[in-house]
Each structure stands twice: as structure tokens, then as C-alpha cells.
Amino acid sequence: MNAEDVDRAASEAVASVRAADDLESLAAVEAALGAKSAPLNAAKRSLGALEPDQRKELGRRLNEARAEVATAVETRRSELAAAARAELLEAERLDLTESPGGRAGHLHLVTQARDELEDVFVGMGFTVAEGPEVETDWYNFEALNLPPAHPARGMWDTLYLDSGEPGTVLLRTHTSPVQIRVMSESEPPIYSVMPGRVYRRDTADASHTPVFHQIEGLVVDRGISFADLAGTLEAFTTTYFGRSIHSRLRPSYFPFTEPSAEFDITCVFCGGDGCRSCGGTGWLELGGCGMVHPNVFAAVGYDPEEWTGFAFGFGIDRMTAQRNGVDDLRELFTNDIRFLEQF
Predict the structure, then answer these.
(1) At CA 289, angle to CA 284 and CA 294, rounded to 5?
(2) Spatial distance between the Cα atoms of 139 and 136, rounded to a whole number of angstroms
(3) Model-level pTM greater than 0.85?
């Protein structure tokens, strides 16, 4: 066998490799090329009968030919493996068009209300602050002018956690601890609202749930008065509920504010004429408010002679229910799709 025979044998071998149409066929071709009777293998065995110079030249060409065939085999194997994988992926591909007409979800009614409230207050110049739902007794009660023996602690049905020290760690009962954290971490002036989830040991009924949502506001600056509080709440009321809805304040008591007040709005159902929802008064109670108590300022290191401020808060769930004509708070949390898709 001469160099031309080697070239012809290599070309035929490469052609047979390229003609393989799957990995199984390629394996058969590769086995045939490795047989003793294969032309290139036969040529290798015949090298011993040649003169040294001829043997050297033909051996070099034979090695080149075998390398060409090996490269062709590996290239074809990669091509066929890729094709096989693509075929498998196509066979296993999920046709996402098999379920046409799927409906996109939307934010929960309470989440929508929270976002709208944040937008209203941000538009009034407030920032938004958040805090942990698991709190210490100091942030939740003591810093808010509620020492351990204070009788007003009975206003909250608190859920305490097992922390090794009974009565020190709890699920926050209101978002007021965030006010303490904001004041502890920053200097006045402060104009901020604090939305969030809170917990109390309540039995679920039409007007109570053990887990609910609040939003509170805090303003601390020089020269802040009760008139600023009343004006802020009126501006919020007309912006959020509409220009026909107004606010009023009634004297009340909260340990962390002095003086304190209840915050009412014009009944959104009857427009103030009186109906069953408002008990014929024309007003709906929304939340509480008042001027920040000097003891609260003292707890966070503020000088009550220099700084004054007010705070307010109300339940997002109850306000949302009132605004949308929902007469049972439990409907907001049962995850009934028939109810949720209405909003």
C-alpha cells in the first residue's frame, strides 16, 4: 500500500463516519474502522515489509490519516449527541398554550389599601418606616408610657413568646413600637407613617380578628400643635375618601398621648345623614390620635421643652371594609376567590 491508498482509505473512512445518522450507527462504523481488516489497520501491518525511508514516510502519512478519522468520529459524535438531546427536549417540552385564558392575579384588597394610604401620606411629605413584628416589652409598652404595673396594659390582649424570660418578648400589639424605633434612631424633625401587621388575643368575629393591619403616623418638630394634628387628619380624610367626607376629633385617653382624641370620619355609607352602619350618628370611628406624651419623648432622649409632636393610628382592615361595603372583617382573610376577584 502506498500514500495514495492511505489517502483513499482515509477519505472513505471519513465519509462513512459522516454518513452515520445516529449514535448507534456511528458506534457500528467506529467498530468497523477498528477491525483488523479495515484498510488503515491493514496498511499499518504492511509497514514492516517496506524499506526504512518508505516505511518512515508512509508511517507519517498513516498517522495523519488515522488522526483525521478520529477527529471526524468525535465531531460526528458531538453533532449526533446534540441532535439527540434537542429531539428529547422537544419531545418533553411543555406546551404552555394548552391552558389558554389564564387569569392574572392582583394585589389583595388590604394590600391595595395599604399602598394607597402610603401614597397619600407620601404626597403629604411623610416617609414610610417599618419595624419587626416580634418586639420587646420595652418598645411595645414601657417606652410608650406603659410601665409593668400600668392598668392600661389591659387595653391590649397580648401574645407573649417563650424567650426564657417571661413577659419580655411578644408579638407587637400595635405599630407604635416603630415610632419608638424611628425616634431612637434619628433626630427631629420627623414626619413618618408606619404600616404593618399586628397581633392580639382576640376571638375572630365580624369586627375583630387576632391578626390585623394598622397604619400610624408620627410628627415631631418645633411648634407642633393640636391644630396641626386636626388639619393633617382632615387633609388625609378628604384626599383619601373624597371631598364630601370630613373628620372630627372627640376627647379620649391613650397612655402615650396627652391630650388624646378619637378620630371619626363622615359615614361613607350615608354621607352623614345617619344609617345602620353609623348607628344613626352620621359618623364612623376610624382611629385614635393625640399629642405625643412628654414621657415618650423622655424615653427616646428628646427634650419635651424643645420638641412637640402628634401621633395617630387606625386599622387598615376596618377602614378597607368600610370603604368597600364589607360588613364582616373575616371575609378579608378567608381567601375565597369569589370574594377576592371582586376587588
Answers:
(1) 165
(2) 6
(3) no
Alpha-carbon Rg for the chain in angstroms: 40
Q: How far apart are CA 82 and CA 104, in angstroms?
A: 37
**Most confident stretch, 89-98, 156-165, 187-196:** 187-196
CB 263 within 8 A of CB 247: yes
Q: Concatenated DSSP letters for 164-189?
A: SSTTSEEE-SSSHHHHHHHHHHSPSP
**Closest by Cα among 183, 147, 128, 144 to 307:** 183
Encode pLDDT of 79-106 as tens digits: 888 888 888 888 887 766 666 666 778 8
Cα–Cα dist 282/264, whole Å:
10
Q: How confident is the model at residue 73 (pLDDT cuts 50, 70, 90)?
A: confident
| Single-letter amino acid, residue 29 | V
Sheet bearing 247-254, strands edge to edge: 127-128, 190-199, 211-221, 308-315, 283-292, 257-266, 247-254
How many other CB atoms are found less than 10 A from the CB of residue 338?
6
Kindly state which CATH superfamily the domain 109-340 is placed in.
Bira Bifunctional Protein; Domain 2 (3.30.930.10)
Q: Which long-range contacts (CB under 8 A, 24 or more apart) does 160-164 make?
A: 161/134
C-alpha cell at 145: 408610657
